[in-house]
Amino acid sequence: MAVWKQKCDSEWQLAANGAPLPDDVDWKSVYEKKPLERNLLKNPSPHGLTHDTPPPEREVTGERPDPDLPPQFEPTGDFSGWSTSIEQLPLDSSGIPPGVVVCYLPTFSWFSLEQRVDLKAEGLWDKLLDKFQPDIAIEDWYEESQLHASIYELHVKLLAADGQTVIKEHTCSPTEDLENYSHNWKQVSHVFSGYGPGVRYVHFQHKVKTKFMVEFFGTMVTGSSVVVKATKSSP
After folding, report:
1. Rounded distance, CA 174 to CA 42, Å?
2. pLDDT of 209-228, one tens digit each?
3. Which domains, ranges and CATH numbers included, belong to the chain?
4. CA-CA distance, 101 to 2, in Å (whole number)?
């Protein structure tokens, strides 16, 4: 076991960073799972895209792609590894002047994707999480669009062993500048540090807005990640 412990320390420089290396840890399993410095989320790019190239442009035609098929109301992609849900939002008629007859209003929805990362199942150990408290880095990229002023939300929680108690959380709800449009990817990131003992799970959820008005328009995401660092930024 000492050989595997040395392999882990050599790869991540844990002792040099002050991380505890107890003898009661299955270091062979830790080394094989490689829980540090890798993305712990499954299927981080469900649309098959990368933030290294701009999102594909969509041609607005005002017509359904195939009128013989039922309308599309949710995004398409490979969402394996994610739990998904749809929240349809109330119709907004606030901007319509009195007396104006409207034949059709766009329908907006939130499309939610979430995962829960079991840190111990991924190979991390109690003393590392409780005493050393390595940085937990979150990153995500969403597609800039003119769909709406609010098209993306991020909610990340560090949970205790019961899977319910929230130890730390981070929420991000950016507002889009609809007058300056470049249709590129926008990065969202956060680092949890000094979060205290007891963290055993990371719950990652992002919500993207969709719109249906004859055609379906959805906001895409890519490059989602949860990475436990071999270092910590707080004493």
Report:
1. 25
2. 998 776 778 899 999 999 99
3. 36-51+78-90+105-177+184-228 (2.60.120.260)
4. 77
